[in-house]
Design brief:
Number of helices: 12
Structural class: alpha/beta
CATH topology: TIM Barrel
Radius of gyration: 18 Å
CATH class: Alpha Beta
Distance between the termini: 23 Å
Order of helices and strands: EHEHEHEHEHHEHEHEEHHEHEH
Strand content: 15-25%
Number of strands: 11
Helix content: 25-40%
Strand order of the largest sheet: 2-3-4-5-6-7-8-11
Shape: globular
Length: about 300
C-alpha cells in the first residue's frame, strides 16, 4: 500500500462512494475548551454524531460534565474519556461515572489508561477500570478502548507489541461478558499498509472488536508533526518529516483523504475487515474537520 500522501485542500475533490461508506458514522473529538468556541454543534455536524470529549489532566470534572451534557442536549452521542491514571480512587471513578450518566445523560465512554507520567491512585490501565464493574452497574451501553497500530512504547518500553496484544485479548474476553457494545479507537497514523497489516494481525489473533481508525483532520503540516511527536506516533512519522524538508509546504493545509481512500478501497474488497469506522482528531480546528467530513460523506 502507498504511504499517506497528504494532499493539499484545494477545492472539493470528486466524492468516492467507498470513502463515503467508510465515513458513515464517523466520530470527532473535542476538549471542553475547544468545544466552548463552537456556538452550535448542530450547525456543523450531523445529528447523532459521536463526539468524544477528551479529558486532559487538570481539566475540572465540572467542565467535562458540562461539555458532555451540552453535546447530549444538542442531540449528539457524547463519549467522555475516562483516563484511569488521573483518577485517585474507586470512589472518584464512581462519582464521575454517575455524573456523566445522571447529570449529562451519557451512555458511552472511552476507557483508557491516560498518558500521564504520575499515577494518581489505584488505576494504571483501562483493564483496572473495567474490572471495577462500574460501567455495567451504571448502565453504560457502549465502551471503547484504545488501539495502537504502531505499538506503544509507554506500554511496551522494550519495543514490540506483546503487552498491548495481551491487553487487547483481555478486552476481547471482557467484551463477551459485558452488556455494552465495544470497539477499538486508535491513535492516528499515516500509512495505510501498516494499519491494514495491524488489523489483519488482530483478526488472526481472534480479535473481533471493530476498529474505529483515528486520523488527523485537515491541518498545517507543522501542526501535524507537533501533535504526532507529542502523541508518540512512531514509524510513520517519517512520512511527515520527509515532507517537512520542503519548507514551502510547511504552511499549506493538508487532509487525510488519500489515506482514507486507500483504507476505503481495501475495505470495499474486504468487507469483513475489522476496520469499520473513522475517528477524526480535529488538529486544525473542529469546524475545519467538520467541513472536510461533510464534503466527503
Amino acid at each position: 500500500m502507498a504511504l499517506f500522501n497528504l494532499r493539499p485542500t484545494k477545492g472539493t475533490a470528486p466524492k468516492s462512494d467507498a470513502l463515503a461508506a467508510l465515513l458513515d458514522g464517523a466520530s470527532l473529538e473535542v476538549m471542553p475548551r475547544t468545544a466552548a468556541k463552537i456556538d452550535s454543534f448542530a450547525e456543523i455536524l450531523p445529528a447523532g454524531t459521536r463526539v468524544y470529549v477528551a479529558h486532559i489532566e487538570g481539566t475540572p470534572i465540572d467542565e467535562m460534565v458540562a461539555t458532555v451534557k451540552r453535546l447530549t442536549d444538542e442531540g449528539f452521542a457524547a463519549m467522555p474519556h475516562v483516563p484511569g491514571r488521573i483518577i485517585d480512587s474507586r470512589a472518584t471513578l464512581e462519582t464521575w461515572l454517575k455524573r456523566y450518566r445522571e447529570e449529562a445523560g451519557a451512555e458511552q465512554a472511552l476507557v483508557l489508561a491516560g498518558g500521564v507520567p504520575t499515577v494518581a491512585g489505584e488505576f494504571t490501565s483501562a483493564i483496572d477500570l473495567l474490572k471495577t464493574g462500574l460501567f455495567d452497574q451504571l448502565g453504560f451501553k457502549r465502551l471503547h478502548v484504545a488501539g495502537h497500530p504502531e505499538g506503544n512504547k509507554d506500554i511496551d518500553p522494550a519495543g514490540g507489541t506483546k503487552v498491548v496484544d495481551e491487553a487487547l485479548m483481555w478486552k476481547q474476553g471482557f467484551s463477551q461478558q459485558t452488556d455494552a457494545e465495544m470497539a477499538i479507537a486508535t491513535q492516528f497514523a499515516f500509512e495505510s499498509g501498516p494499519i491494514i497489516a495491524w488489523a489483519e494481525r488482530l483478526a488472526a489473533m481472534g480479535i473481533t472488536l471493530p476498529i474505529h481508525l483515528g486520523v488527523a483532520g485537515p491541518t498545517k503540516l507543522q501542526t501535524l508533526i507537533k501533535f504526532a511527536i507529542a502523541c508518540g506516533v512512531g514509524p510513520s512519522l517519517s512520512v511527515l518529516q520527509k515532507r517537512a524538508m520542503d519548507l514551502t509546504k510547511l504552511l499549506v493545509p493538508f487532509e487525510p483523504t488519500d489515506l482514507l481512500t486507500e483504507i476505503a478501497a481495501y475495505r470495499a474488497t474486504n468487507p469483513d475487515s475489522l476496520l469499520q469506522k473513522v475517528h477524526l482528531f480535529p488538529l486544525g480546528g473542529i469546524k475545519t474537520s467538520a467541513e472536510w467530513l461533510g464534503e466527503h460523506k
